[in-house]
Design goal:
With 278 residues, the protein is of the alpha+beta class. The protein has 7 helices and 13 strands.
């Protein structure tokens, strides 16, 4: 397996300078901690951002990992199979050639010269990922980060939402998060799904979203019992200048028979995700 060296070890959720050495090439980059539950692990996950003009390149893995501005190093601390993240992305990528594919492969990681074992090296969910699939770089990218990120007017706990985009953060696009109108298109999508009649929903949905993406999302997470990913853990992309919404997956530490806290799930533990996603 290829080996990646990161020095110094990122210690906060803010980017800080690091040197990344891979296949003999030293990159001047930035790194930060990544995750939620994994922040408490002794083997943590990281996002690495590379400098313009010297993006990360690995032509021999995952079908060609070319010119990546950001990569993710995902911990396998909670996965004694070491392959669930990679396997999930591989299933998604093979389901349909039109999917926004997420590339992933395995690497050995050293932090500050110390061996930290096997990680999954994957794409980062951002405008670069969607642009690599022919979508406009100026589009809006939203990340669902908790179970309030459903398509109704209420939170996961059943309370009225403060905003229709509760549970989402905006990763790319204009206006940026925190600016007026930053979530207008996402709010409009949630409002349409929540309030439209069955007839209007059936007639208008294909004009608003790329239906195969959203249909396949639920086929996908049902197949691998990705219980977190059935209710959240998605990236949504939309070009405000026109074009349908697209989907890409992330985070599978609750999948393939293992729950997020590492307990085993029963073979008949079927979940239709209605409780989480509503």
């Amino acid at each position: 397996l290829p080996v990646i060296f990161v020095t110094p070890t990122p210690t906060t959720e803010e980017y800080a300078p690091v040197t990344v050495t891979y296949r003999g090439h030293a990159y001047a980059a930035e790194g930060k901690l990544r995750g939620a539950s994994s922040l408490s692990y002794p083997k943590q996950s990281y996002t690495i951002k590379f400098a313009a003009g010297d993006y990360f390149d690995e032509p021999a893995r995952a079908g060609g990992f070319h010119g990546k501005q950001r990569i993710v190093l995902t911990s396998t601390f909670d996965d004694n199979s070491y392959v669930r993240q990679r396997l999930a992305y591989e299933v998604w990528n093979r389901m349909d050639a039109d999917h926004v594919a997420v590339q992933a492969y395995s690497v050995v990681v050293y932090l500050d010269g110390q061996y930290h074992g096997l990680y999954a090296l994957t794409d980062h969910g951002d405008d670069d990922l969607f642009a690599a699939h022919g979508l406009p770089r100026a589009g809006n990218v939203y990340k669902a980060i908790n179970h309030d990120a459903n398509f109704t007017l209420r939170t996961y706990e059943g309370d009225p939402k403060a905003t229709l985009h509760d549970g989402y953060t905006k990763k790319d696009g204009q206006p940026a998060e925190g600016q007026p109108g930053a979530f207008d298109d996402l709010d409009a999508l949630v409002d349409f799904v929540a309030r439209s009649s069955d007839a209007s929903f059936a007639a208008e949905l294909p004009t608003r979203v790329h239906v195969p993406d959203f249909r396949d999302w639920y086929v996908f997470v049902t197949y691998l019992l990705g219980s977190d990913s059935g209710g959240k853990n998605c990236y949504l992309f939309h070009d405000p200048a026109g074009g349908p919404w697209r989907y890409a997956p992330w985070d599978f530490n609750h999948s393939f028979g293992q729950a997020w806290e590492t307990s085993r799930t029963a073979a008949d533990d079927w979940d239709d995700f209605a409780d989480k996603n509503q």
